[in-house]
């Protein structure tokens, strides 16, 4: 009895020792059991590195001054990032220059001619009293709409709600003619892309468009406004580009090819993505003066905002003089890249990017993301110094002129098209990294599994539970932002950030991460360090969590024994998208072939998953490498070489932006359905079916 | 079988007919079964009269222009109210004039002398852009502190948090001397009375005090600020009186007697309620400039507000020049009264009052209440024209100069002291009638039963359930304002409105009603018709509910067969108050006599309730009248003829204001406990016991 007890005790102790000191973690997706412990240790190491204090210090450098694309400060910061890359031990650091059309403003005049003389300030004054140190205006941060046409017109003003097609139809029904008029519209929230608002106006023959921020949308009527809270003060001006990047992004003068020194360039008149009419952003303060004078019938209820005026559509004596002059110059922009070369598959690239340029200070957009990127580089540097080297190569990129038209990522991606199509494993993007506490993770469905695992590993800094659980709580409590995905990983990709060239042009799996919250200072002078430090992320805790998420995702893709991409969820989403689209088409049977292909994709994914499972048990590098190549071909297979009808640059058959930032799934099919033409629908479905079958073949290694 | 069925059917029909057409309502408290049907019918009639549209029209007249006490517009509105009283058929309409000290501002200068020259605007500019039509400034609405001393000083500035005694102790511990300095303090919320803040500063030897509204307290950091929401914009200035009305309210020159033409007057130097130091209100915009320049050590955490500055206590080079000049004139004010004479007991008075004067437009304070009062008068007029006359007389009063020091109600109450002590049944007050949706009902405990019944009869306009149920929902949902009572009827009475003279000086049961909500424009130019119509009560629905509550309360007190006052809850509250006080005193047994008296009060109330029950069954007018007289004596019995130590005007033994608006229960006892002197505590308890015994005798008719 005594002896037996002793033996049992020894067994128990041995067991405890094993579980405590040699606990074998469950392998992460794509990792062999034999690699699990090492990967777990690396991740523990990585998770411990990010420092809120260091992120704050970095952020103060980045957001301390306005750093518009092409400006001296933007160039200085390119140097600062290069130095930080070097300090962390990155290899092959490079600063590449592209010369692109980057118009800066010379004049934006909006003035009332009748019934009285008045001129819009076009200045974002400090919200009250003295200027806070980070809110000084500077020449390079004058509010304007980049790529607005230059011009000069005096015209009557029509208020057109949010300036959507339906709004103009409504005006027409009211007998109000917008041709030759200056149209005043308000930003809609969730944001519709202002470039599309301008195109819509241009198609109706307006002479110029003024886009203002109503306090009802993301301003003082929603909650405390800056400097007291996250919402936009009345004096904010949401500047921004109006390029038609939903047609083609990047330098408007090199649509589809890189803006290298000797590249051919189209003329401004030939450029598809350039507006033909004038546009300018307005503050609520200035818009109010126009709305008070505009006269005419009362605006439809849905158009009324929170300004203390009676919203009218126009018809009074109001005459406005609008003059916009932009310098229309070609300027250099700078892309900084650096890498950690992989040990086993150095040719395979995991690319991690963030843009550096900001409309003004870029407190959240993008410097919160840039600070997170530099902290991630710091953590990878420390991991590297500990002796680690990734299986695959990790490439870090600091993009430029994203704000103008996703320019440097697009030009860089176009420049390296062949290399990237051959070697890119994934592109992992962060833009405005942090503006609040709600996780916003988007990815192609192939990344769902890995992202979900990581969201279970990283802790929410406030809730002290995994970010995945905190996200669930946010969904069930109903406080999710109105345009947010209810899935932990959103799979509907639009545009609006640097992942576009990778997903839509190159067919590379992408992910995009951020923590979001109320953010009414977007693209204004008030998106500054003070906003971020006091309101957006006090204590920089969500920056730390973002670095952890982004870093672990990078680490797993770079180190996995077989790429952690799973195409079963892709097949599920495809069936969902097909159901949605076919519900809007009188002959649902037309979708049968595509449905069959989607089912085949799920089966192929299942077969590959089985093979991967076996390959992870047997350590045969050749088998694993072959699986990697099949997986890398799968996303590429969704590219239609001819692109979407009317916009050949957008080649992905499953995802595209609508003519806005919003996502459109199965874009060619959906657009064909809108035309009502069965021939077009049938053609689009055929092309889609072929793309899905190519993906099946890719997974099957045929 | 067939016959039996027929009989049953007839019986059922008869029963249904009875319940439908001759339903006998449960008699309201104080009503005989025989009166219940008539009372129910009257109440149905009354409930149907109030019209949101008519209230809005009335409100636009009242709040259309600033109407400071003593101003021409105030006098015009006295005439308007007299005309409305007359149109509704009130009798014995009278406008009585009192000549009282009513200082208007000549100058309020606050300017920085060092480190740079700057001058506080002291103006509430329109919140943005052009002035809304109702926010024009006018001479009579210059922000100032009425009754501030006039003077001129240049001194260093100390920031003293909310300016409470503890705050000065804290400064002392930090080695900061406030003597001779200008002290900057912020309004605390829930409001402490600014007059007490001035007295506290005066006692510490400061030269002048500036009181500003921090956005953290009731401003833009709490939520959308006007014009977008209920909170105060940064430019608002909370003006107001700084008279020490917690010592004695009313005209400072006639403390305790009426300001009639030939009344003796004390000199300004003799007036107990007049401050000796300068004070001025400031906006957050102006205060921020001073706080940015103030220098010295960081302020304690609790003192830090939401301005984007580092809050410091002072010690830098900041020097401020402060000059206040007030005209210190005696001016006429106007009290308008009118009545509906009672049929049975015309000598018994139910008094219904609201003040008319406003600091500026008085959107909520008081014009929402004034509009409700005129609508109630309209409803009583219609009831009167239908043939009804109340059993008791109802007297309607429109008070003046409430904002300065509860002046016209105090002077009128002092003038009619003997008549009111003999005849007043109750005083039913409304001040700021509506600023939101949460019922705020306060009363002496004798009115709890009737108020509760009425709150079950009137519907909440948004929730479509009785206001009593809606109030419960508000309490359980946790959204009750922080200083609100969690009881449907709050029984802790402080001061701050016109009920003071009735309760504290005359011993008349009082009630005070309103619907409240976030209200950051209090005492500013932005408390205007636009605020009320768009934000405080869109659709004027809560105005209708207020008229219904106030009217039904009036109706029941005026028409009850025996007065609906119940002193059992009073006994319960007294025991509660005694428990609270004795818990702070080392010898709880000292409270035994008072406890015994409270128990006796409960028993006497029970006996009276039994008698009332019997009297309501037997229609003997003499018995009922005798019960009325005993009930009317009960509240009077709580008066201590000598008043509270140091403030003889405050005579009620159970309720008084603290040296602020906040309530103090058993004031003499609690203040004696604070001195720690057993002799004083014992004397105060003896006096309290005597007062309670007098109430027992009153109820018993001895």
- Share of residues in strands of chain A: 15-25%
Query: CATH-wise, what's the superfamily of the largest domain in chain A?
Result: Zn peptidases
Helix content of chain A: 25-40%
Reported for the largest beta sheet of chain A, the result is: 8 strands, mixed
Number of helices of chain A: 22
Assembly category: homodimer
CATH class of the largest domain in chain A equals Alpha Beta
Unreliable segments of chain A (pLDDT under 50, ≥5 consecutive)?
Answer: 1-21, 128-140
Question: How far is it from the N-terminal to the C-terminal residue of chain A, by CA?
Answer: 65 Å
Instruction: Please name the two chains that share the biggest interface, counting residues whose Cβ lies under 8 Å from a Cβ on the partner chain.
Output: A-B, 29 and 29 residues
CATH topology of the largest domain in chain A: Aminopeptidase
- Order of strands across the widest beta sheet of chain A? 1-11-13-12-14-17-15-16
Radius of gyration of chain A: 26 Å
Please, what is the average pLDDT of chain A? Answer: 92
